[in-house]
Amino acid sequence: MERKDAKERQTLTGRVSRKVKDGMFRALFREDKEGLLQLYNALNGTDYTDTAELEIVTIENAVYIVMKNDLAFLIADVLNMYEHQSSVNRNLPVRFLLYLAEEYQRLIERMEESLYGRRRIRLPVPRCVVFYNGEEEMPDRWELRLSDAFSGEREKADVELRVQVYNINLGHNRELMEKCPLLEGYAKFTALCRAYAARGMERRDAYSRAVEYCIEHDILKTFLQRNRAEVIGMLLTDFDAEKYERTIRREGIETGIEQGIEQGIEQGRADSARRMLRAGRLSLEEIAEYTALSVEEVRRLAEPATV
To answer: Residue 53 sits in which domain range?
Structure first.
């Protein structure tokens, strides 16, 4: 009996770990192809009904783990790439460029085509979409462009990639939400998680309460009933990842300031030493004493520059 229980726990742990890596948004729409097709129709004004026409081609093992693609699928010769973001990220066009390159390479290999042949290879049209649900106030929709990242502002770029960003916080893009109840359910669930956390509840308790409320009120009911433990694990992992990124950014800024101050002090010492050397009134040892540099450092400053 104990062996069976251990095996069941191991299986559950494996399932949770895999889904935690996915993230709730990805898991929600990956599990529900009808919902994903519904989302596609809502975004594009189409009315596809057969999920067999939708082929998932999400990158599972990207080179950089932090750049793993959320959702990618083919339908009607369109390659759709969907990303979920809880923070404003203006580097997404660059990331999508890398995703697309890998997706197209895989498609070309699957078609057994050659890039060096004379015959033109037909590729699906790319559609790059981001669903934003961060706490920073943003409009319903905006566009990011790859060309905004190019440093040569005066030069017209020969390549462009546009990313459409939709704000999926509750109260935004209402027409889109009405056309895709699964997306609206996700927005409601996220809002509830934040509301309970804002009351001072521990994160795990806030997420558990939100899950219970949604199940009771038929919001993502089937998904949450089937994946209750996994969902809470995903949310806690996402929160820890965001906190870690904020900490890294803050530490990076503090380290940069400290390095800048230190570099400024060293530069000031070197400039003072050069002025004293030009005056020619003090010995190397005296200059070293006044500037807190070593005699060897002062000697190097005194040497003529070589080309």
So the answer is: 14-179
Tell me: the pLDDT tens digits for 97-154? 999 998 998 889 888 888 888 889 999 999 999 999 998 999 999 999 999 998 876 6
Asked if the structure places residue 8 within a domain, the reply is no
Both 172 and 80 in a single domain? Answer: yes
Of 141, 160, 179, the domain-final residue? 179
Is pLDDT at 237 greater than 50 in this prediction? Answer: yes
* Phi, psi values for residue 233, rounded to 5°: -65, -40
Say if residue 269's pLDDT is above 60. Answer: yes
What residue type is 155 in one-letter code? E
Query: Is residue 50 packed enough to be buried (19+ CB in 10 Å), middle (13-18) or exposed (0-12)?
Result: exposed
pTM (two decimals)? 0.70
Residue 154 and residue 257 in one domain: no
